[in-house]
Structures are given as C-alpha cells and as structure tokens.
Amino acid sequence: MSALAIAPTFLSDFTRLTPDVQLDTLAVMRAYQAGDQPGLESVAGAADPRVRVVSIAPDWSGVIVPDPDVEPGTEDAGQDEAHETPYRLLTVRPRDEALRYARSLRPEALPDTLVEAGTDPVDLTPIGPPELAGALSSPFAQWQITLHPDQHRITEAHFNGSAQITGGPGTGKTVMALYRAAHLAELDAAAHPGDTRESVLLTTYNRALAQSLADRLDQLLPDPGTRSRVKVATIDSLARSIVQTHTSTAPRMAGKDELAQRWRAVALADGLPFSGRFLVDEWEQVILAKGLELLPDYIRCERSGRVQHLAPEHRRQVWETVRRYVGAMRVEGLWSYPQLAGEAARVLGRSGPLFRHVVVDEAQDLHPAQWRMLRAAVPEGPDDLFIVGDPHQRVSDNRVSLASLGINVRGRGHRLRVSYRVTQEILDWSMPILGRRAALGMDDDADTLAGYRSLLRGPAPVVRGCESRTEELTALGEWVRVWLEAGVNPSEIAVAGRNQWVVRGVTKELEARGVPTTPLEGAGDTAAVRVGTMHRMKGQEFRCVALVGVSDHLLPPKAALEAAEGDQVALEHAYQQERTLLFVACTRARDALYVSHVGQPSRLISENW
C-alpha cells in the first residue's frame, strides 16, 4: 500500500473520538505514510470480503475499505498483493462495534470518493441551506464578503435617521456593515460627483478588524474613486487624529490598567480609602461617561451599574482626588482613550461634522464619550448612523444609552436571530459560557439570545485535556496538521491563547514543525497560520480555530481578578469579561473548534459540563 487514504466522512467521526484515540489514529496514519504498515485483519462473515480492520488502540479498531475500482474477489490474494491495494480509512470505533460495522458494509454502500491523506483535500465545509451552497464552496476570501440574500434589503434601505442592527455571533453583522458602507459610498458618488472627499466613515473597535474591513471593502468597491470615499479607522485612531489636528501634538495614551496602577500608588500615599481601580472606573464609567464637569452634577447623578454606594461627602472626596490626578495627567500630556474621545467631541462641536454617513461595527464596546464624538462627526438626519453590534459580545465595562446621547434608533432597529457563519454545534457548545444573564442593550433594554439558531451543521467542538504543557503543544501541532492535510488554507486557521506567554509557546511549536505563523493582525493574503491572544480574535472569522491554555490557572487570569482589588463590582465585571472573551474567541470559527487545557479545565467551561 503506497499510502493510507481517508474517506470524505472520516474527519466528522474523528472529531468525536477521545484525545488519546485521536493521537493513536494519527500515529497509524503516519506509520502507513512512512512505509511501516500495520497488518490488516480480515473480518469473518463480512458482506464484502475485501473489508479489513486495523488495530488503533487496545480496544479500538479502524475500518478499512478498498478503492471502488478494485473488483471483488481479491480476498484470497497474498499479503504482498494486498499491500499493493489502495485502501481508505472509513471510521474508528470500539473494536466490537467496528467489527459489527465492517460486517454490515456492502460493496454498493461504499463511498465513491477516495482522498489520500496529505495529497488531495477532504471537504470540511459545513452543511448549509441551498441559498448558501455556492458561497460555502467558494474560496474563503469570497465567503468573507458573502451577505445572506435576505439581508440585502437592510443594507440598501433608506432610513429617516439612525438605524441599529443587533444579533449573535455569525449573523452577518460585520458583513452588513461592509455592504452598508459600500452602498452609501456609491450613493454619495452619484449625488456628489464633484466632491471626492472621505464622506463615509466605517469604524470599529480594534486595528486587526479595521484592517480586515479595509481589505474586504477593496473587494466590494473595485472602483478607486468610489472606494476613496470611505474612511476605515478604529475609534481610537479617529479620536487621536482629530485631537492631533487641532493641537498639532501627538497625544500620549495610557490604558485603564496603567492608570489604575498609577492612581493606586498615589491613593495609598494620600491615605485614601479608595483603590486605584475604583477611582479610574468611577472617572471613566461615571464622570466621563456622563460628561460631568461640575461637582454638584456629580453629587446628584445616578451611578448606574456601580453597586458601591457613595455618600455626598465621599463623592466630594472622589471628585477632588480625580480632579487632582487628571490635572497631573494633563501636565504629563497623558490621555486615557475615553478622555481623548471626549476632547475630540468638543473639537468637532466647534469645527463641525467630518462625514455625511457613519457606519459603526462592534458598537457594543464603545464608551459614551466615543459615541459623543461619532454623534458630532456626522450631521443628524437621514442615514446618518448605521450601528451594528451584539451586547452579548461586550468585553468592556461600558454602559450606553444611545437615546441619551442624541442617537435615536427607536423604530429603526433590527434583531438578527439566525446565524449562518458559525455551525450550530459550535454555538451549542459556546453559548453556556456566557451564563444565564441577559445583556443590557444599547437603548436601555434587555437583550437575550432567545430563538438564536444557526443554518449550518458541522462537527462538534473537540476538548483535549493534557497532563503537561509539552503534551498540549504536541497535540495542538497534530491537530493543526490534520486541518492542513484536510485542505484548509493556513491563513484560514487561527490559534489563540489568553496571554502572550501561551502565544509564544504556540508559535515556537508550529514553526518547529515547519508550519509558518503570523500574528492575528497580519496581512490577509499571507499563507500562514494566524496566532495571537484571544483579544485579537474579536471581529475576525476563520474556518478552523484552536484555543490553547483554557486551563483553570490561566483563565480567568489571576492578574485580572487581582486588579479588582476587592471591589465586588469590578470582580463581577472581570469574570463576565472573561466569559465574553472566551465566547467571542470560540465563535470566530465557522467549521471547526478545538479547545485544550492542562490539568483542570477553566471553570468558565467546566461549569457548563
């Protein structure tokens, strides 16, 4: 036998095997390819005497079937001749079950397609409805800009004001944002042929997604004149460019964690009864979120979502402390991201709007100050803001009421409940990670996933428990090889961990195996497996996703819990953010999901088993 082949249906069965049996199966397949061929065993009483079984593990066997071109009647051939017969591995089952299955196989029941491992691809494409069949079989780059036929009417609709689209993972929200931006650009080109400025803003939460949106928009708008009307930018880069243009000075940025550490040290030195994390959260989630500029307004305000009560005298103390710390930041030229957006909103309030239309993706993670900036960036009127997001994928603490910020979407909202970019099997496994709580929507109502379902069906996710980190990385390498040998393009595979330490180990393992890697935010056409942290997965889409290090000592990370500094509200937010982060990472896969851990699995997944 020159090589052991696999039947097209084999990988679906393979994902349901235990990790140990999977590795034993891969070992047998490698042995055949290396020329070290384990003996095949005839099956007494088989309906087709050509069927064989091969030992996989002490209690497991693989069922081997011949190439359909080999005529029946060769069962008496010698062993050497039998080894020249092309066979395929059909399934791996417990030995008694494998023997029963082998006896029942008839020549006419054998599948007609033979696929040699490592040469021709096995089709991993999920099963979908007829209207998506052509798109599912197209190259993945084409699939990434495929919009469900039923959604065109929304992306091309005329709205009398702002519109909001919400929906769970895989419902096509990001693709709808792309098509909406393209549609508005085409309308703008027809209405203002002499004005070629960037009139449509397409904005999102992170750089990787912004680059992906820009690349896909190039495909949707091949005409350079029309494409040039759309500016694609992250919300933070937009704020930075507005402020920098106004001040001629590049702002120095500081994240929430850095500020919490700074303010904690100063609070301890001043003997204040507040943690640095509490002060930063109070500043960003109450003072900046509500745009408060006077102490009386802060004393009177409702602190929605902040469980810890603050008496008026304590609010005065917090106000003075925050004002002092923010003053020190200004002296250093240091800004937080919401603070910078607030300043950009004030600049636009004086200078006027920049765009005629704004399309917002991943809207659930924007801060109220960032919404004020977007409101000021476009004049209020027909088709001004087109907003897409999912409150269940919120990984920030931001709570937003669009109506209170001058963005009215009442009567122009659409809730998408049908997914067509993630299989039902992946959704069934991932959704319990979120817990049972409803999410707060962006217009003050509760948002649930009731009735949420997928049109696609595929293999169940695989969870692999390992005894050591070395074993985990080895198992990952084997799994990535299975995907590659199944014909999946390397750029359609993503591997993610919770932190950079896990990511570095993954990169080393894959590179040592000769598998090229590139960061998750790398160029879209690079033939390399994407590797990065779970945060970088946000908004992206792949055929196959592997999540490594989903262990209880790594997820939730100790640092994230310690950062709460005993603040029960902050601790609760930290847990929910980790749940959302893991849920988002899992649902970046269209076809297949693999999850591994060392020792005890993360409580975020074990609680749901």
UniProtKB/TrEMBL annotation:
Residues 64-84 are annotated as: Disordered. ATP binds at G167, G168, P169, G170, T171, G172, K173, T174. Residues 146-455 form the UvrD-like helicase ATP-binding domain. Pfam families: UvrD-helicase, UvrD_C. Its EC number is 5.6.2.4. It catalyses: ATP + H2O = ADP + phosphate + H(+); Couples ATP hydrolysis with the unwinding of duplex DNA by translocating in the 3'-5' direction. Residues 68-79 have a biased composition (Acidic residues). It comes from the Bacteria. Keywords: ATP-binding, Helicase, Hydrolase, Isomerase, Nucleotide-binding. This is DNA 3'-5' helicase. It comes from Nocardiopsis exhalans.
